[in-house]
Design a protein that fits this description.
Blueprint lengths: L3 H7 L6 E2 L11 E7 L6 E8 L15 E9 L4 E7 L13 E14 L15 E10 L2 E10 L5 E13 L3 E20 L2 E23 L2 E12 L7 E15 L4 E14 L2 E14 L4 E13 L7 E19 L6
Antiparallel strand pairs: 1-2, 2-3, 3-4, 4-5, 6-7, 6-17, 7-8, 8-9, 9-10, 10-11, 11-12, 12-13, 13-14, 14-15, 15-16, 16-17
Length: about 325
Protein backbone atom coordinates (compact mmCIF):
# COMPACT_ATOMS: atom_id res chain seq x y z
CA UNK A 1 0.00 0.00 0.00
CA UNK A 2 1.33 3.41 -0.94
CA UNK A 3 1.85 6.09 1.70
CA UNK A 4 0.86 9.72 1.37
CA UNK A 5 4.52 10.70 0.92
CA UNK A 6 4.96 8.15 -1.88
CA UNK A 7 1.84 9.42 -3.61
CA UNK A 8 3.19 12.95 -3.43
CA UNK A 9 6.15 11.81 -5.51
CA UNK A 10 4.22 10.02 -8.26
CA UNK A 11 0.81 11.63 -8.76
CA UNK A 12 0.19 14.59 -10.97
CA UNK A 13 -1.37 16.64 -8.17
CA UNK A 14 1.29 16.76 -5.48
CA UNK A 15 1.81 19.05 -2.49
CA UNK A 16 -1.29 17.85 -0.65
CA UNK A 17 -1.73 19.03 2.94
CA UNK A 18 -3.79 17.51 5.70
CA UNK A 19 -7.26 19.03 5.76
CA UNK A 20 -7.61 19.97 9.44
CA UNK A 21 -10.33 22.55 8.92
CA UNK A 22 -12.93 19.86 8.23
CA UNK A 23 -11.35 17.13 10.36
CA UNK A 24 -14.49 16.66 12.56
CA UNK A 25 -16.41 15.50 9.48
CA UNK A 26 -13.97 12.70 8.65
CA UNK A 27 -12.64 9.52 10.17
CA UNK A 28 -8.88 9.06 9.48
CA UNK A 29 -6.88 11.71 7.66
CA UNK A 30 -7.87 13.56 4.53
CA UNK A 31 -5.46 15.58 2.41
CA UNK A 32 -6.47 18.60 0.34
CA UNK A 33 -4.83 20.58 -2.45
CA UNK A 34 -6.45 23.60 -4.09
CA UNK A 35 -5.52 23.64 -7.77
CA UNK A 36 -7.57 26.69 -8.73
CA UNK A 37 -8.50 29.06 -5.91
CA UNK A 38 -8.80 32.54 -7.35
CA UNK A 39 -10.88 34.74 -4.97
CA UNK A 40 -12.13 36.69 -7.97
CA UNK A 41 -13.61 33.62 -9.65
CA UNK A 42 -16.78 31.66 -8.74
CA UNK A 43 -15.33 28.35 -9.88
CA UNK A 44 -12.51 26.48 -8.18
CA UNK A 45 -10.78 23.13 -8.60
CA UNK A 46 -9.47 20.98 -5.76
CA UNK A 47 -7.80 17.60 -5.31
CA UNK A 48 -8.32 15.46 -2.20
CA UNK A 49 -6.88 12.19 -0.97
CA UNK A 50 -8.33 9.90 1.70
CA UNK A 51 -6.10 7.76 3.85
CA UNK A 52 -6.68 4.00 4.11
CA UNK A 53 -10.26 3.21 5.32
CA UNK A 54 -10.93 6.95 5.64
CA UNK A 55 -14.54 7.99 5.48
CA UNK A 56 -17.02 10.77 5.94
CA UNK A 57 -20.72 10.64 6.69
CA UNK A 58 -21.58 9.48 3.19
CA UNK A 59 -18.99 6.98 1.98
CA UNK A 60 -16.01 4.83 2.90
CA UNK A 61 -12.73 4.49 1.07
CA UNK A 62 -11.21 1.00 1.19
CA UNK A 63 -7.84 -0.30 2.29
CA UNK A 64 -5.98 1.98 -0.13
CA UNK A 65 -5.37 5.71 -0.60
CA UNK A 66 -8.04 7.33 -2.78
CA UNK A 67 -7.73 10.45 -4.89
CA UNK A 68 -10.70 12.65 -5.76
CA UNK A 69 -10.86 15.51 -8.19
CA UNK A 70 -13.61 18.01 -7.41
CA UNK A 71 -15.10 21.12 -8.96
CA UNK A 72 -16.02 23.91 -6.54
CA UNK A 73 -18.67 26.45 -7.47
CA UNK A 74 -18.99 29.35 -5.07
CA UNK A 75 -22.21 31.01 -4.09
CA UNK A 76 -21.95 33.97 -1.80
CA UNK A 77 -21.77 33.43 1.09
CA UNK A 78 -22.03 29.61 0.74
CA UNK A 79 -19.67 27.34 -1.20
CA UNK A 80 -21.25 24.31 -2.91
CA UNK A 81 -18.86 21.44 -3.59
CA UNK A 82 -19.77 19.23 -6.53
CA UNK A 83 -17.73 16.07 -7.01
CA UNK A 84 -17.90 15.69 -10.74
CA UNK A 85 -14.99 13.41 -11.39
CA UNK A 86 -13.41 10.72 -9.24
CA UNK A 87 -9.94 9.71 -10.30
CA UNK A 88 -8.61 6.56 -8.69
CA UNK A 89 -4.84 6.99 -8.50
CA UNK A 90 -4.42 3.58 -6.87
CA UNK A 91 -4.92 0.23 -8.56
CA UNK A 92 -8.08 -0.53 -6.55
CA UNK A 93 -11.53 0.94 -7.00
CA UNK A 94 -13.44 2.60 -4.20
CA UNK A 95 -15.04 -0.10 -2.05
CA UNK A 96 -18.46 0.61 -0.52
CA UNK A 97 -18.89 -0.41 3.09
CA UNK A 98 -21.79 -2.73 2.43
CA UNK A 99 -22.91 -6.23 3.29
CA UNK A 100 -24.19 -8.44 0.50
CA UNK A 101 -26.76 -11.17 1.00
CA UNK A 102 -27.18 -13.64 -1.84
CA UNK A 103 -30.30 -15.71 -2.44
CA UNK A 104 -30.29 -18.52 -5.01
CA UNK A 105 -33.53 -19.58 -6.70
CA UNK A 106 -33.18 -22.76 -8.72
CA UNK A 107 -35.19 -25.72 -9.85
CA UNK A 108 -36.17 -28.12 -12.58
CA UNK A 109 -39.25 -29.43 -14.35
CA UNK A 110 -39.25 -32.86 -15.93
CA UNK A 111 -41.40 -35.35 -17.80
CA UNK A 112 -40.76 -39.07 -17.43
CA UNK A 113 -42.25 -42.38 -18.53
CA UNK A 114 -42.14 -43.67 -14.92
CA UNK A 115 -41.97 -41.47 -11.84
CA UNK A 116 -39.52 -42.65 -9.18
CA UNK A 117 -39.65 -41.82 -5.49
CA UNK A 118 -36.63 -40.66 -3.47
CA UNK A 119 -36.32 -44.38 -2.81
CA UNK A 120 -35.97 -45.78 -6.36
CA UNK A 121 -37.66 -49.13 -5.59
CA UNK A 122 -40.91 -47.17 -5.16
CA UNK A 123 -42.26 -46.01 -8.52
CA UNK A 124 -45.53 -44.62 -9.84
CA UNK A 125 -45.52 -47.04 -12.83
CA UNK A 126 -47.03 -44.29 -15.00
CA UNK A 127 -45.90 -41.26 -17.02
CA UNK A 128 -45.31 -38.45 -14.56
CA UNK A 129 -44.37 -34.80 -14.12
CA UNK A 130 -41.61 -33.78 -11.72
CA UNK A 131 -41.10 -30.34 -10.19
CA UNK A 132 -38.19 -29.47 -7.90
CA UNK A 133 -37.67 -25.96 -6.53
CA UNK A 134 -35.03 -24.50 -4.20
CA UNK A 135 -34.84 -21.16 -2.39
CA UNK A 136 -31.41 -20.99 -0.76
CA UNK A 137 -29.98 -18.27 1.47
CA UNK A 138 -26.63 -18.77 3.16
CA UNK A 139 -26.68 -22.30 4.60
CA UNK A 140 -30.46 -22.74 4.73
CA UNK A 141 -32.79 -23.79 1.92
CA UNK A 142 -36.49 -24.49 1.37
CA UNK A 143 -37.09 -27.06 -1.37
CA UNK A 144 -40.54 -28.19 -2.58
CA UNK A 145 -40.48 -31.61 -4.28
CA UNK A 146 -43.56 -32.61 -6.31
CA UNK A 147 -43.93 -35.88 -8.25
CA UNK A 148 -47.33 -36.65 -9.78
CA UNK A 149 -48.75 -38.87 -12.51
CA UNK A 150 -50.10 -36.91 -15.44
CA UNK A 151 -53.69 -37.52 -14.29
CA UNK A 152 -52.79 -36.24 -10.80
CA UNK A 153 -54.11 -39.34 -9.02
CA UNK A 154 -50.82 -40.76 -7.70
CA UNK A 155 -47.61 -39.20 -6.45
CA UNK A 156 -46.14 -37.20 -3.61
CA UNK A 157 -45.63 -33.65 -2.35
CA UNK A 158 -42.72 -32.85 -0.03
CA UNK A 159 -41.45 -29.65 1.54
CA UNK A 160 -37.76 -30.00 2.38
CA UNK A 161 -36.13 -27.79 5.01
CA UNK A 162 -32.37 -28.22 4.64
CA UNK A 163 -29.31 -26.85 6.39
CA UNK A 164 -25.63 -27.19 5.42
CA UNK A 165 -23.83 -27.86 8.69
CA UNK A 166 -20.42 -28.12 7.02
CA UNK A 167 -19.47 -26.68 3.62
CA UNK A 168 -15.74 -27.08 3.14
CA UNK A 169 -13.85 -27.37 -0.14
CA UNK A 170 -13.55 -31.15 0.21
CA UNK A 171 -16.16 -32.18 2.78
CA UNK A 172 -19.80 -31.22 3.25
CA UNK A 173 -22.52 -32.31 5.66
CA UNK A 174 -26.18 -31.53 5.12
CA UNK A 175 -29.17 -32.28 7.34
CA UNK A 176 -32.82 -31.91 6.48
CA UNK A 177 -36.39 -32.75 7.32
CA UNK A 178 -39.68 -32.71 5.47
CA UNK A 179 -43.40 -33.17 5.94
CA UNK A 180 -44.98 -35.02 3.03
CA UNK A 181 -48.19 -36.21 1.48
CA UNK A 182 -48.26 -39.45 -0.51
CA UNK A 183 -51.12 -40.11 -2.91
CA UNK A 184 -52.02 -43.71 -3.83
CA UNK A 185 -55.00 -45.47 -5.36
CA UNK A 186 -57.20 -47.52 -3.07
CA UNK A 187 -60.17 -49.69 -3.89
CA UNK A 188 -63.39 -49.10 -1.99
CA UNK A 189 -66.73 -50.89 -2.21
CA UNK A 190 -69.92 -48.91 -1.82
CA UNK A 191 -73.43 -50.24 -2.48
CA UNK A 192 -71.88 -53.29 -4.10
CA UNK A 193 -69.86 -51.18 -6.55
CA UNK A 194 -66.04 -51.27 -6.44
CA UNK A 195 -64.17 -48.12 -7.40
CA UNK A 196 -60.73 -46.58 -7.03
CA UNK A 197 -60.13 -43.44 -5.02
CA UNK A 198 -57.00 -41.46 -4.25
CA UNK A 199 -55.90 -41.82 -0.65
CA UNK A 200 -53.58 -39.25 0.92
CA UNK A 201 -51.16 -40.41 3.61
CA UNK A 202 -49.02 -38.14 5.77
CA UNK A 203 -45.34 -38.70 6.48
CA UNK A 204 -42.45 -36.92 8.12
CA UNK A 205 -38.80 -37.79 7.46
CA UNK A 206 -35.27 -36.62 8.23
CA UNK A 207 -32.01 -36.94 6.31
CA UNK A 208 -28.25 -36.86 6.93
CA UNK A 209 -26.01 -36.39 3.87
CA UNK A 210 -22.19 -36.42 4.18
CA UNK A 211 -20.17 -36.02 1.00
CA UNK A 212 -16.45 -35.98 0.17
CA UNK A 213 -15.10 -34.32 -2.99
CA UNK A 214 -12.10 -36.30 -4.24
CA UNK A 215 -11.53 -33.90 -7.14
CA UNK A 216 -13.72 -31.35 -8.97
CA UNK A 217 -15.40 -34.10 -11.03
CA UNK A 218 -15.53 -37.04 -8.61
CA UNK A 219 -17.21 -37.33 -5.24
CA UNK A 220 -18.27 -40.10 -2.85
CA UNK A 221 -20.96 -39.92 -0.21
CA UNK A 222 -23.66 -41.47 1.89
CA UNK A 223 -27.36 -40.73 2.22
CA UNK A 224 -29.54 -41.69 5.19
CA UNK A 225 -33.30 -41.11 5.29
CA UNK A 226 -35.55 -42.09 8.19
CA UNK A 227 -39.30 -41.91 7.57
CA UNK A 228 -42.40 -42.13 9.75
CA UNK A 229 -45.99 -42.71 8.65
CA UNK A 230 -48.52 -40.65 10.63
CA UNK A 231 -51.50 -42.97 10.16
CA UNK A 232 -52.22 -46.53 11.25
CA UNK A 233 -52.63 -47.97 7.76
CA UNK A 234 -49.75 -47.99 5.31
CA UNK A 235 -46.00 -47.85 5.99
CA UNK A 236 -45.02 -46.72 9.51
CA UNK A 237 -41.21 -46.93 9.92
CA UNK A 238 -38.58 -46.87 7.18
CA UNK A 239 -34.78 -46.64 7.01
CA UNK A 240 -33.04 -45.92 3.71
CA UNK A 241 -29.21 -45.95 3.50
CA UNK A 242 -27.15 -45.47 0.33
CA UNK A 243 -23.45 -45.48 -0.54
CA UNK A 244 -22.98 -43.50 -3.73
CA UNK A 245 -20.46 -41.89 -6.00
CA UNK A 246 -20.74 -39.27 -8.74
CA UNK A 247 -18.46 -38.89 -11.75
CA UNK A 248 -19.36 -35.68 -13.60
CA UNK A 249 -18.31 -33.65 -16.64
CA UNK A 250 -17.27 -36.67 -18.68
CA UNK A 251 -16.56 -34.98 -22.02
CA UNK A 252 -18.26 -36.64 -25.01
CA UNK A 253 -17.48 -33.75 -27.38
CA UNK A 254 -16.85 -30.02 -27.08
CA UNK A 255 -20.28 -29.21 -25.60
CA UNK A 256 -21.85 -32.50 -24.48
CA UNK A 257 -21.14 -33.86 -21.00
CA UNK A 258 -22.13 -37.06 -19.20
CA UNK A 259 -22.56 -37.71 -15.47
CA UNK A 260 -22.72 -41.17 -13.90
CA UNK A 261 -24.20 -41.73 -10.41
CA UNK A 262 -24.16 -45.35 -9.22
CA UNK A 263 -25.34 -46.28 -5.71
CA UNK A 264 -25.84 -49.32 -3.50
CA UNK A 265 -28.64 -49.05 -0.95
CA UNK A 266 -30.41 -50.84 1.87
CA UNK A 267 -34.10 -50.40 2.66
CA UNK A 268 -35.94 -51.37 5.84
CA UNK A 269 -39.74 -51.08 5.89
CA UNK A 270 -41.81 -52.23 8.87
CA UNK A 271 -39.77 -55.39 9.46
CA UNK A 272 -39.12 -56.22 5.79
CA UNK A 273 -35.88 -55.32 4.03
CA UNK A 274 -34.03 -55.34 0.74
CA UNK A 275 -30.71 -54.50 -0.94
CA UNK A 276 -30.47 -52.83 -4.34
CA UNK A 277 -28.31 -51.24 -7.02
CA UNK A 278 -29.43 -48.05 -8.72
CA UNK A 279 -27.59 -46.07 -11.40
CA UNK A 280 -28.43 -42.74 -13.03
CA UNK A 281 -26.83 -41.39 -16.21
CA UNK A 282 -27.30 -37.73 -17.21
CA UNK A 283 -26.54 -36.12 -20.59
CA UNK A 284 -26.16 -32.33 -20.66
CA UNK A 285 -25.17 -29.66 -23.19
CA UNK A 286 -23.25 -26.52 -22.27
CA UNK A 287 -25.50 -24.25 -24.33
CA UNK A 288 -28.99 -25.55 -23.52
CA UNK A 289 -30.86 -25.76 -20.17
CA UNK A 290 -32.21 -29.27 -20.82
CA UNK A 291 -30.85 -32.60 -19.61
CA UNK A 292 -31.73 -36.14 -20.60
CA UNK A 293 -31.34 -38.78 -17.93
CA UNK A 294 -32.17 -42.41 -17.25
CA UNK A 295 -32.30 -44.36 -13.98
CA UNK A 296 -32.30 -48.13 -13.49
CA UNK A 297 -33.02 -49.99 -10.25
CA UNK A 298 -32.01 -53.63 -9.76
CA UNK A 299 -33.08 -55.72 -6.76
CA UNK A 300 -30.47 -58.03 -5.22
CA UNK A 301 -32.70 -59.37 -2.43
CA UNK A 302 -35.99 -58.17 -0.99
CA UNK A 303 -38.82 -59.30 1.29
CA UNK A 304 -40.76 -56.03 0.88
CA UNK A 305 -44.32 -56.64 -0.44
CA UNK A 306 -44.94 -55.49 -4.01
CA UNK A 307 -41.23 -55.20 -4.84
CA UNK A 308 -40.27 -55.34 -8.54
CA UNK A 309 -36.94 -56.89 -9.51
CA UNK A 310 -36.11 -54.30 -12.19
CA UNK A 311 -37.29 -50.74 -12.84
CA UNK A 312 -36.18 -48.07 -15.30
CA UNK A 313 -37.16 -44.64 -16.59
CA UNK A 314 -36.12 -41.88 -18.98
CA UNK A 315 -36.62 -38.22 -18.04
CA UNK A 316 -36.34 -34.97 -20.01
CA UNK A 317 -35.67 -32.06 -17.64
CA UNK A 318 -35.57 -28.27 -17.94
CA UNK A 319 -33.19 -26.65 -15.39
CA UNK A 320 -32.85 -23.06 -14.20
CA UNK A 321 -30.92 -21.11 -11.57
CA UNK A 322 -30.76 -17.40 -10.66
CA UNK A 323 -28.80 -15.52 -8.01
CA UNK A 324 -30.22 -12.42 -6.36
CA UNK A 325 -27.98 -10.11 -4.30
CA UNK A 326 -29.41 -7.73 -1.75
CA UNK A 327 -27.04 -4.96 -0.74
CA UNK A 328 -27.35 -3.17 2.56
CA UNK A 329 -25.29 0.01 2.93
CA UNK A 330 -25.06 1.10 6.57
CA UNK A 331 -25.05 4.77 7.61
CA UNK A 332 -21.52 5.73 8.54
CA UNK A 333 -21.15 8.37 11.19
CA UNK A 334 -17.87 10.16 12.01
Amino acid sequence: MATNEELNRVVIFADRRENKAYAPGFFKKRYHNSLVADPNENVGLAHGTFKSVGRNNREIHGDVFQSLLGLIYKFKPVALVLLLLMVNICSFAQVPDSTQKETTVSGSFGLTNNGFSIIPSFSLNSPSALLFLSLKKNKFSIEPDIRLTLDGRKGSMLLWLRYNLIAKQKFSLRVGTHPAYNFALREIKENGVTSEVTQARRFIASEIVPNYQINPNWSVGMYYLQGNGLQKDGPRISHFVTLNTSISKIKLNRDVRFQLIPALYYLYLDGDEGTYLTTTGIFSHNKVPFTLQSTINQTFRSTIPGNKDFLWNVTLTYNFSHNYIRKKVPLLLP
